Amino acid sequence: MTDVLSTLFRSDQGGHEQVVLCQDRETGLKAVVAIHSTALGPSLGGTRFHAYASADDPEQAAVLDALNLSRGMSYKNAMAGLDHGGGKAVIIGDPETDKTEGLLLAYGRFVASLGGRYVTACDVGTYVHDMDVVSRTNRWTTGRSPENGGCGDSSVLTSFGVFQGMRAVAEHLWGTSSLRGRRVGIAGVGKVGHILVDHLVADGAEVVITDVRQASVDRVLAAHPGVAVAADTDALIREPLDVYAPCALGGALNDDTVPVLAAKAVCGAANNQLEHPGVEKDLADRGILYAPDYVVNAGGVIQVAEELHGFDMDRARAKAARIFDTTVEIFRRAASDGVPPAVAADRIAEQRMADARRRG
């Protein structure tokens, strides 16, 4: 619990405003809702449904995940220009076996109890039809189906935004925003990753993929037979790549992977890719350009935020397209300040939140 409390109150992260532990004995719901900041507006972030089976203490792991993810959402929403703070929820359990309608309805009631301080959406382990259920017990749910007044699958613009980030990487490194002829490795071709493959293939990139689920690999190969497959993520990161795209869970860039990473740049959809502070410097020291994850994967939150104002896909897509310009500007700022791109992005986001707090 010490690790949880230190993360909750860390002054260098601005501190979390509120953390709610939710339990419903009848349905078996155990959940955590973490609100990092409401400086820019109501906190907004998805609901993750995950078992944390490999952790010694799954409950503590879930709380730490919620704390880290909610902080990331504050920075993501700030950099995306949204009038929202950062929040995140975690439901503890196996979505394949533990997810029920009753559990989702109970979770929705907990979201409602926060009175609009937290707006939820999809994340790992939750889908559009789940948000349709959750929304039946509260009015602060996004990522619903179009039939229920929502924006549909937010992975559509998440993948589009990551592709815009990759275009910015190409512009910075090679002087052209096209990925044509570039070799891109994608670790994780699930909800976001498989759509990212579509964008890259259409742009003429050479794509290599890996995923722990064979069905996900098979889906990509059925659509794009020319895509190559690596044995696993460990093999993929050692391949000579122009861009490496982590698109699964966080912590992909760490003390083990960075020393053997053979890519020229990293730009992916996964949240919290840097396992700990200092990894961004390790990447820079090796000459690997890092596109900050919370900047390039913001297309999804841009999509669901639009839902709150009457969803229009063209308007949302136009906002997500600006991820290209934002990423280019971060690379410029990093170069001028002599810091890694992750540090430059943090400074910009923190300034926006600080300005909002001063305005009251």
UniProtKB/TrEMBL annotation:
<dbReference type="InterPro" id="IPR006097">
    <property type="entry name" value="Glu/Leu/Phe/Val/Trp_DH_dimer"/>
</dbReference>
<comment type="similarity">
    <text>Belongs to the Glu/Leu/Phe/Val dehydrogenases family.</text>
</comment>
<keyword id="KW-0560">Oxidoreductase</keyword>
<dbReference type="InterPro" id="IPR033524">
    <property type="entry name" value="Glu/Leu/Phe/Val_DH_AS"/>
</dbReference>
<keyword id="KW-0520">NAD</keyword>
<protein>
    <recommendedName>
        <fullName>Valine dehydrogenase</fullName>
        <ecNumber>1.4.1.23</ecNumber>
    </recommendedName>
</protein>
<dbReference type="InterPro" id="IPR016211">
    <property type="entry name" value="Glu/Phe/Leu/Val/Trp_DH_bac/arc"/>
</dbReference>
<feature type="domain" description="Glutamate/phenylalanine/leucine/valine/L-tryptophan dehydrogenase C-terminal">
    <location>
        <begin position="152"/>
        <end position="360"/>
    </location>
</feature>
<dbReference type="InterPro" id="IPR006095">
    <property type="entry name" value="Glu/Leu/Phe/Val/Trp_DH"/>
</dbReference>
<comment type="subunit">
    <text>Homodimer.</text>
</comment>
<keyword id="KW-0101">Branched-chain amino acid catabolism</keyword>
<comment type="pathway">
    <text>Amino-acid degradation; L-valine degradation.</text>
</comment>
<dbReference type="InterPro" id="IPR036291">
    <property type="entry name" value="NAD(P)-bd_dom_sf"/>
</dbReference>
<dbReference type="InterPro" id="IPR046346">
    <property type="entry name" value="Aminoacid_DH-like_N_sf"/>
</dbReference>
<dbReference type="Pfam" id="PF02812">
    <property type="entry name" value="ELFV_dehydrog_N"/>
</dbReference>
<dbReference type="Pfam" id="PF00208">
    <property type="entry name" value="ELFV_dehydrog"/>
</dbReference>
<dbReference type="InterPro" id="IPR006096">
    <property type="entry name" value="Glu/Leu/Phe/Val/Trp_DH_C"/>
</dbReference>
